[in-house]
UniProtKB/TrEMBL annotation:
This is Glycosyl transferase family 90-domain-containing protein. One of its GO terms (molecular function) is transferase activity. InterPro entries: CAP10, O-Glucosyltr/Glycosyltrsf_90. It comes from Mycena metata. The keyword Chloroplast does not apply. Residues 292-537 form the Glycosyl transferase CAP10 domain. Keywords: Membrane, Transferase, Transmembrane, Transmembrane helix. PANTHER family: KDEL LYS-ASP-GLU-LEU CONTAINING - RELATED, PROTEIN O-GLUCOSYLTRANSFERASE 1. The keyword Transmembrane helix applies. SMART domains: CAP10 (SM00672). Belongs to the glycosyltransferase 90 family. The chain crosses the membrane at residues 42-66.
Length: 538
């Protein structure tokens, strides 16, 4: 308290001295000074209390980075329980447990956020919490967002302006010099963006309407977000490799050095020369056992027809990525909002056959390299199996060969069409018990739709999407290796274990219908934008 008292202005604390005559007989012949306070003890106490309160407020404010990180939100409107016990028609499920364990108070949500990330929520989290509660979204389970933004938070400890500087660099590049990149601006929650002729979002008016709707709930949101309007990921920067090079401080310094002379225009042809031969993205086929790489089973890694990435760590919002080779920040794409017509085919009436139809993959075809593309691999596998299985277990086919990827002198489109009987006739997919979700050039964008179909979904992919941490293999779907080497074994298991196969199908359908709703996609977008604005503001 004495130290605090010393900080007060002297005119508040100094004594007033008056000269008074000295009484006769005094030992001293000089004048005597009488000391009287300029402020009463009560006044001093009040002043000290006020200063102490102001000092405490400043300490707390500085500790929070001068932001309203923990601002108290307006209370959300009253909500009914996630599931009314009176309306529950079956046994309790894992989705019930997930929804019931979500935070029901703002204080609890902040505490869980802080526990997971080691930092307080960014400004605007309170408004987001109200939005999420109102729309009945998940509150606590956004590990993918925390994972995607973590490298930028670590770099902010070295350079608080890093994120903002990288965003400004991309703003200058957006347009012809960085095709497929758009800057989304939000001022006081009102969105606007640069034009992009071909995109994942601009051709969907509902996307801009969604952003405007979110802006109403997040009126203080100000940012410049970088949107990738291509299907392919754009940030070829492996933060895990960098982190293994040397010490953490040295690797962070390396990440902050922007060395790519042509950001978002690196386009090796074929892409295998960069990803595989040069070792920039070696993806294991199986996370278990000895390592075998899946690079020769991916159109994107072999010979992508649409590629243009950067090797610097720019913040970019994308629909999918290969982790850890790419560092894009994931968001829902328009295909994730697509509605699904409920199936009226009962499980027992479905054919115990795996069904797939789709276009040819988006890879440049040269010579016989297409045999490595997953969709052609599937047809080759089905043809071989038909010779050894009297009972058909697959009905698969390519409906269209995109000849724009087959215009070199080493590509013979007519021969490919004949070899694979293209185009294949489409059937009603919900008439089959088993459906396959298979990568094209990137992820198919059909996974959520297939989960809601009422059929058991088999999924083969190298790509991570925003919902990947939520949907668990063997619980919601059947995983298949990228080279499809275990697909037949998985189908035969499902045919031999119909009850368990149906349980997995039902769990995946329930999760997709009850959790990954359009409202949940909105909440995910809002959470990403709030995190982005927090880093850009730093």
């Amino acid at each position: 308290m004495n130290a605090l008292y010393s900080l007060l202005p002297s005119r508040w604390t100094s004594s007033a001295y008056t000269r008074v005559p000295q009484a006769s007989g005094s030992r001293s012949n000089g004048a005597r000074f009488s000391r009287s306070r300029g402020a009463s003890p009560w006044a001093r106490t009040v002043i000290l209390a006020a200063v102490f309160g102001a000092f405490t407020f400043l300490v707390v404010l500085v500790g929070r980075g001068w932001s309203s990180d923990a601002e108290e939100p307006l209370p959300p409107p009253p909500l009914e329980p996630w599931i009314s016990p009176m309306n529950r028609t079956g046994p309790r499920t894992a989705v019930d447990d997930l929804l019931d364990r979500q935070s029901t108070t703002f204080e609890r949500a902040v505490a869980r956020y802080t526990l997971k990330t080691g930092r307080r929520p960014p400004r605007g989290y309170g408004a987001w919490y109200v939005l999420a509660r109102t729309r009945r979204c998940l509150i606590d389970d956004y590990d993918q967002i925390h994972h995607d933004f973590e490298p930028f938070h670590q770099l902010a400890q070295k350079d608080k302006k890093y994120f903002r500087k990288m965003v400004e660099r991309v703003k200058k590049l957006a347009g012809p010099t960085a095709p497929g990149i758009q800057v989304l601006t939000m001022e006081k929650g009102v969105p606007s963006g640069t034009e992009e002729r071909s995109s994942l979002y601009n051709d969907n008016d509902a996307w801009m309407a969604m952003l405007k709707n979110l802006g109403v709930s997040l009126p203080d949101l100000n940012l410049n977000a970088i949107i990738n309007h291509r299907e392919e990921p754009r940030v070829s920067f492996d933060v895990r490799v960098v982190a293994r090079d040397t010490s953490a401080s040295a690797s962070a310094k390396k990440a902050m050095q922007a060395n790519d002379p042509t950001p978002f225009r690196t386009a090796p042809r074929p892409t295998s020369e960069y990803f595989t031969d040069a070792g920039h993205c070696l993806v294991p086929t199986d996370p278990n056992g000895f390592v075998r790489y899946a690079n020769n089973a991916s159109s994107f890694l072999l010979s992508s027809a649409s590629v243009g990435f950067t090797t610097d760590l720019y913040p970019v919002l994308s629909g999918s990525k290969i982790y850890p080779c790419f560092a894009d920040i994931l968001v829902p794409s328009k295909s994730d909002y697509a509605s699904t017509v409920p199936s009226d085919v009962a499980w027992e009436d479905k054919k115990p056959v795996l069904y797939w139809r789709g276009d040819s993959p988006g890879g440049w075809i040269s010579g016989d390299n297409y045999h490595g593309f997953p969709r052609f691999r599937l047809l080759d596998l089905a043809r071989n199996i038909s010779q050894t299985h009297a009972d058909p277990i697959m009905d698969v086919g390519i409906t269209n060969l995109d000849e724009s990827f087959c215009h070199s002198t080493e590509c013979y489109s007519d021969g490919i069409k004949t070899e694979y009987n293209i185009p294949a006739k489409e059937q009603r997919e919900d008439a089959y018990k088993y459906l396959l979700d298979l990568d094209g050039n990137t992820s198919s964008g059909r996974f959520l739709k297939l989960l809601k179909s009422g059929s058991l979904v088999f999924k083969s992919t190298l790509f991570t999407e925003y919902f990947t941490p939520w949907l668990r293999p063997f619980e919601h779907y059947i995983p298949v290796l990228p080279d499809l080497s275990d697909l037949v074994e998985r189908i035969e298991w499902a045919r031999a274990n119909d009850d368990e196969a149906r349980r997995i199908q039902a769990a995946g359908k329930e999760f997709a219908e009850r959790v990954i709703t359009p409202e949940q996609d909105d909440c995910y977008w809002a959470a990403v934008l709030v995190e982005w604005a927090g880093l850009q503001r730093t």
